[in-house]
Design a protein that fits this description.
The chain is built from two helices and no strands. It is an all-alpha fold. It starts with 9 loop residues before the first helix and ends with a helix.
Length: 70
C-alpha cells in the first residue's frame, strides 16, 4: 500500500483511535463534558500531527540542502 504521507505511521493511529471513540461518545450523548472532551482530544491529535509533519518537512529540507551542497 502506497502512502501519500510518509510521516503517517503507527503513532498517528494511536491518536486517531481515541479521537474516533470520543466522537462516538459525543454523538451518543452531546453533553457539555463530552463536547469539552472531544475538543481536548482533537486539539492534542492536531498538535501531534502538525508537529510530526513539521519534523518530517524539516528533515527533508535538510536532506535536500545537504545534497545540493555536494
Amino acid at each position: 500500500m502506497q502512502q501519500h504521507k510518509p510521516y503517517f505511521d503507527k503513532e498517528f493511529l494511536s491518536f486517531l483511535d481515541p479521537k474516533k471513540q470520543t466522537k462516538m461518545q459525543w454523538l451518543q450523548n452531546p453533553s457539555q463534558s463530552n463536547v469539552d472532551n472531544i475538543k481536548n482530544v482533537t486539539r492534542e491529535a492536531s498538535r501531534h500531527f502538525r508537529n510530526k509533519k513539521k519534523e518530517y518537512l524539516k528533515a527533508k529540507s535538510e536532506e535536500f540542502e545537504t545534497n545540493s551542497n555536494v
